[in-house]
Design brief:
InterPro entries: Plipid/glycerol_acylTrfase. It comes from Phormidesmis priestleyi ULC007. The structure is a single chain. The protein is built from 9 helices and 8 strands. It is α/β, with parallel strands linked by helices and 240 residues long. The protein has one domain. Strands 1, 2, 3, 4, 5, 6, 7 and 8 form an 8-stranded mixed sheet that branches. Strand 3, helix 3 and strand 4 form a beta-alpha-beta unit. Helix 1 crosses helix 2, helix 6 packs across helix 9 and helix 8 crosses helix 9. The N and C termini lie far apart (36 Å).
Length: 240
């Protein structure tokens, strides 16, 4: 394995920072094939943490501003992440890139809570609502045997400090309303964290058929709620 691969970089980063990770239900991780990893989100460490946990490179979709800010832009590139388009856009580039990656049997990662928990930093055992883009991706991608893998990141101990002023980030990404306020972007560094793997489910031809018909809205909502409930249940269990 190349020393500069996203997986190796992730392992080295966690080791250098002395982060203790405890993995639960490793046997649920699909060993091969196209996989869509869905997780809660509260720290810049979540992408390397999840890669190290499932022992596989994951191509994460990250917020638009991460591809605009110097230094941060290089970090996300090294980790194999690809930035979303600015807020309000239809994210056609995201869907195109993610589908191409899944077609080549790679793992793609998404954080459906978006930027909200990164900026407002909720309590360790709290999780916000999920945006539905990942469900549309799973049902839209013309990929056989696509596994959707829900994972919870349950923090035991962390150090929280301030990183950069939100107004500065607004300079790089004026489309993000969360940056149009006073205060600082939190910097959350894990010390001890549980990673709990949920039960994977596979997208079936029947699911895709429903997505093409009148039941499209219902099945998108079903998958979104299913992943949210699974991760929330794991999160509560992992925090105590």
């Amino acid at each position: 394995m190349a020393s500069d691969s996203p997986l190796q970089i992730s392992r080295l980063l966690l080791s250098a920072m002395g982060i203790q990770m405890y993995l639960h239900h490793r046997d649920r991780v699909p060993q091969t094939g196209a996989t869509l990893v869905v997780s809660n989100h509260r720290s810049f460490l979540d992408a390397p943490l999840l890669m190290s946990a499932i022992d596989r490179p994951i191509r994460f979709a990250c917020h638009h501003y991460m591809g605009q800010v110097p230094v941060m832009r290089e970090v996300v590139k090294k980790l194999g992440c690809f930035p979303l388009e600015s807020s309000g856009q239809k994210q056609q580039s995201f869907f195109h890139q993610a589908i191409q990656l899944l077609k080549t049997r790679q793992a793609v990662g998404v954080f459906p809570e978006g930027t909200e928990p990164m900026v407002n930093s909720p309590a360790r055992c709290e999780m916000g609502e999920f945006q539905r883009g990942f469900a549309h991706l799973a049902l839209k991608a013309p990929v056989q045997d696509l596994a959707v893998l829900p994972i919870a990141i349950a923090v035991q101990d962390e150090i929280k400090s301030s990183a950069v002023p939100l107004k500065l980030l607004s300079f790089f990404d004026p489309s993000e309303p969360l940056f149009d306020q006073e205060g600082w972007h939190p910097l959350v560094v894990y010390q001890r964290v549980n990673v709990l793997v949920g039960r994977p489910f596979w997208i079936t031809p029947s699911d895709r058929q429903k997505y093409q018909g009148k039941g499209a809205r219902a099945i998108v909502q079903h998958f979104t709620s299913h992943c949210h409930d699974e991760i929330n249940s794991l999160l509560i269990r992992g925090c105590y």
